[in-house]
Write a structure and sequence with these properties.
Strand content: 35-45%
Shape: globular
Largest sheet: 6 strands, mixed
Number of strands: 17
Length: 296
Amino acid sequence: MLATLVSNAFDKPGWVYEEKYDGVRLVAYKEGDRVRLFSRNDIDNTSRFPSVAAEIGKLAAASLLLDGEVVVFDRKNVSRFQRLQRSEGQAVYAVFDCLYVNGEDLRRKPLSERREILEKTIPASKILLLSRRLAQNGVAAYKIAKRRGYEGVLAKDLSSPYMEKRSNFWLKVKVRQEDEFIIGGFTAPTGARKYFGALLLGAYEKGRLRYVGKVGTGFTEETLATPHRKFAPLIAEKPAFVDPPRERDATFLDPKLVAQVSYQEWTGDRKLRQAAFLGLREDKRPKDVLFPGSAT
């Protein structure tokens, strides 16, 4: 189930307001002692997060399907995608929904019931964490998230079923300016830099890939090398952008890779200002990367 982005914090009766985490979204399947962790695009992440899988394997439920996000917290207890990418700290599974337990399908039950079952199923530990609710009032929750430096707030309708699609029953309000963008190409390196100069970024709007700017900062030698290794089979003769940039040294790619990027703001012509690369998002499907405000 995916949340819909809204511009402003709000408060509604019958809604709850949770911390929005900055990590990798995974569903956890447990059958007996066997546990598997899968991303939204069906990549098996079990071997990447063995401590999470082992902790879920200890749970009493014979069968279980959980929805949550693997995160790494900094010293201020704020989740940071970069720390997770670089394995800088303990991976924690923040669990926010329970879809099946002991053979029972819970998806049509309201979120209020699913959360109650989840709280009985998941004991608190250093590796498993129930998603944190910030305040009963949505505006107050946003202020808390902003003060603490969280990525944002997830607002959820307690009466909602679980739906395998983007829904207005779950809404998100951002605090930090971070988002996912599709890598549609790259420029040649200059000076002492290796591999490439900048990534050319895009997002879908009404089914067409729009160019949103480039990112050339925030890289280490490893984070330059890792994307570059994936470029060769994706090199394309023509740009996938409907409005490609005029870059003399650009190499265009099939739109298969997704990057996490922080930025200061959007310019008047809908381009990113002061963008910085945070990492690749292997858990995200390119078709789900939408231009802010775009519905499809």
